[in-house]
Amino acid sequence: MLTNKKNSLKHLYDEGCIDENDYADIRKEIDSRIMQVRGSNVSLEDIRFNEVFAHCPLFSMLNQTELSELRSKSKIKEYKKGTVLIRANMKVKAAMIVVSGSVK
Fold this sequence. Notes:
By secondary structure, the protein is mostly helical. It contains four helices and no strands.
């Protein structure tokens, strides 16, 4: 049931019915409830990581060991609207995956 709510929420966000802040707030609440139901020590960050990588074709060929290694080296960061992430000719040492929102 909670997974259905999460999918419905994503659909509302994708259709533009709710803004990014409301989506993030409601999503955190749903994820917290999922964790309570499961009674696990898994963090919200781990749940989101697993969901993102499970649906990303770029990483679909990785096995569980490889995903675990990638997870151990990954960080989830949130940025405010208008934040500059990369500038032209800037050397980059990491990859970024946009989970929510967009970049220009």
